[in-house]
Amino acid sequence: MSDVAVRKQDFKDVYNKKDCSLYYQLCMHDVWGDDRFETQSFYVESVLSEELLKVWQKEMNKPLNMIDVLSGYGADTLLYTRAFNKQDFAKMWGTPENMYNIHKPLLFPVKTFGCDSSKFALQYGIDCGIYDETETVDFNNMTPENESLLQHKCREANMLTTNSIGYLHDGVFEKFVDWFAEGTAPGLFVVGLAFPFEGVERGRVQKRYLLEKLDFFDSLSVVYRKPTKSEEQLFEEYRLCGRMAYETWYLTRRCEQSPQNI
Ligand SMILES: C[S@@+](CC[C@H](N)C(=O)[O-])C[C@H]1O[C@@H](n2cnc3c(N)ncnc32)[C@H](O)[C@@H]1O
User: Fold this and answer.
1) What are phi and psi of 116, to 5 degrees?
2) With a 6 A CB cut-off, is 2 part of the ligand 1 pocket?
């Protein structure tokens, strides 16, 4: 864990419920964490899918592969495959009768793979159709079998999304970057960074690592959540003025865009 993430509100119980209702209520709605999806969904629809993802999908003429790392109930999978915004989450995750009913179509044909330590969150994602496949993995204690599966999934992915990387032990995030960079097809690596939870010094080191292995495409900063009661002092210490900023980095795989790589 990053030095700052240990002071984050402990949401472990919330991550391990049989559906996303409590996660939506406590981590998104009550702390205004769902605001981030407004700008991000607009960016997915107007930039990422138009300039990269739909283009790659048409060129390859097969569904894209997506891996969501630390995926939980699949908020980022819904964002990047269906442009879910704040109202969409309220409609699906904030309304008990809609919890298993995805009301928005895919932006492009895609196969989704979720991986997280919460088997309940992953099962929910399978049951309602957010994920096509999942794997329950504790990334801080991976077996050789876990590593080999994830290396394969990262290499074949045309999109990898992740956030909450402050939970990972030193060196784990770098493994995902390495595995993704080893792939040969077009690929977009998306990492969401909530300052300062991923660690200030560590965050800087990780950004440099990303730039060594992948090509920078863009970054987007959006307004994120307010503190819980127990986080108020931490927010003051880091001069967060009541709301966190959530910075997303978008990087592309270095690969020849030749037909054999597609
Ligand atoms: C804040 S949630 C983020 C979920 C999702 N990416 C999103 O944006 O909604 C953090 C997730 O990290 C997972 N997690 C925390 N530590 C983990 C670990 N060591 N291995 C695998 N998953 C972990 C939790 O189960 C939880 O689902």
Assistant:
1) -170, 165
2) no
**Is the beta carbon of 76 within 6 A of some atom in ligand 1?**
yes
pTM of the model: 0.95
132 Cβ contact partners less than 8 Å away, ≥ 6 residues apart: 111, 112, 113
Lowest mean pLDDT among 5-14, 45-54, 248-257: 5-14
**Fold of the CATH domain 32-261:** Rossmann fold (3.40.50)
The amino acid sitting at 48 is: L
Given a contact cutoff of 8 angstroms between Cβ atoms, the answer to whether 246 and 36 are in contact is: yes
DSSP string over 1-52: --TTGGGS---HHHHTSSSSHHHIIIIIITTTGGGHHHHHHHHIIIIIIIII
Largest Cα span, the chain: 54
With CA atoms as reference, report the closest residue to 63 among 7, 4, 112: 112
Distance 26 CA to ligand 1 centre (A): 15
Mean pLDDT of 184-207: 93
